[in-house]
Amino acid sequence: MGTLHILEVPWNLRHPSSNESTSIQNYFEREEKRLEYYVDRLVFREQEKREIDAEEQRKKNAPPPPEETEEQVEEKMRREYEEYLRLENELLIALGVKQEEDEPLPEK
């Protein structure tokens, strides 16, 4: 035959506490929100990875930029320097350090 075990379940385990059902419901709601957030982030990261991979592929397939000749580089540097001198002149005039007609910008 067999052995029969009879156990008594305590009263506090048989009956829920006053706010136990609310606490459990809040717990499940938080877990659902956390899982939704996790899935959203997972989808976002996959899309981000695809975009990065596509950008890298475009960079690999793009032709290299044409190299500038020495004359083009010198012309670019000259224009940048003239722009710098113009801005410096405007700043000195605005600060009152220099009069407007002190010296003109160098001509080409």
Structure description:
This protein is an all-alpha fold and 108 residues long. It has three helices and no strands. The N and C termini lie far apart (115 Å). The relative contact order is 0.04. The mean pLDDT is 89.
Summarize, please.
With 108 residues, the protein is mainly alpha-helical. Helices cover 67% and strands 0% of the residues. It is built from three helices and no strands.
The global form is: elongated
User: What is the end-to-end distance?
Assistant: 115 Å
Report the biggest beta sheet as strand number plus sense, adding barrel if it closes.
Answer: none
The fraction of residues in strands falls at under 5%
Number of strands: 0
Average pLDDT: 89
**What is the H/E order?**
HHH
Helical amount among residues, as a percent range? Answer: 55-70%
Specify the number of helices. Answer: 3
Radius of gyration: 38 Å
Low-confidence stretches: none
> Structural class of the helix and strand makeup?
mainly alpha
Topology overview:
Blueprint: H1 11-14, H2 20-61, H3 70-95
List its salient traits.
108 residues; mainly alpha; 67% helix; elongated
